[in-house]
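User: Okay, second chain of the day. Same drill as before: sequence in, structure tokens out.
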Amino acid sequence: MAVFDEKSIQNLFDSNLRKAKECLASLAFCCSASPSFGGLTGWVFEETIHHCLAKELSFLGTQAKIGSQESLEGRSKVDLVVGQRVAVEIKEKGLFDRNAADRYGRYMRSARTKGYSYLYLTREETYQPYREAIKKAVGRRNAFFLDRPGEWARFVQQIVKELRSPKKSPIDNKKPRT
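Assistant: Same drill. Structure tokens below.
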């Protein structure tokens, strides 16, 4: 049993986004009735996932610190690192260009050289070629799409499995698991 599912996460995200916009609009210097700007929706979605994952891990009795926006290499960052074992890339609306899957494949390799497993989570991916490209780039077992039933539970189970498995050396983490 899980605390959340895809529908409850969507409802919480919608509520959180509405509240974030209301809070921004209440700032004395804000001149917009409904603030909206690049990055706001993605940030709210990342924070919602962070919150939900923390609740799930607590419910399951799994202790793990969750860090945000941690560096992989150079300027590339990963959205969450769970228990210094699992790097999680989070996208609210999936991929936006044909080169993105390759980029996340590179991020996965960087994460693995640091000893992390790498998971990709998106609220939705409507363009089938991009869905297939990201699965190929990071491995089918490592790509999660919340527009499909059961994906949240599978995501949480994969994180718990990674947290409980023996720590691998970075050299063992070179190949994506498919």
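The first helix runs from residue 6 to 25.

User: Thanks, on to the next one.
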